[in-house]
Amino acid sequence: MTMQPVAPPHLLTVAEYLAIGEIEFGYSELAEGRLVMSPSPTADHNRAAFRLGCQLEPQCPPGTEVNFDLDIDLQLAPADAPGTVRQPDMIVVRHDARQRLRREGGVVRASELLLVVEILSPGSRRIDCESKRFEYADAGIQHYWLIEPTEPVSLTACHLAGEFGYQDAGPVTGTFTTAEPFPAVIHLDELI
Question: Which 3 state secondary structure label does DSSP give 148?
Fold first, then answer.
């Protein structure tokens, strides 16, 4: 019989969350010290993330890379306070962040990210569009993309606008072209 990890009966720091380890059913995140479980993604969700990564990776600037489902310490609280760790569907991160993880362990830091991407699904839509939008902005992540994987597939590109948080021009369908955080062209209809 396998024992499931048990969270302490208090709000967790990032270090305490990481000490719990992997949770067998679904995946977990840490929101202001509270353990949050999310359902496993659907096949369409996973396919959209994979296809987006295939399009985006060759367009990434030198010294950066695409990664999937990695824990991100949003660095919103001191190390001894209840923390927030999110697991975006996809990130573009500096290559040296993965090298640091290999040497030191831990998780990716918000300060190491160029881009965070969430693929919307019924079980996470509100969290992705509201909670994470505010948290990622508070963490100083400059660019946040939201992908709606139902036809017509759309992408909403949010950019940090100082004290106003994220601003966006609304969803784009067909082909998404951007210069920020680096020049890229994404063919959205090819994601599903």
Answer: strand
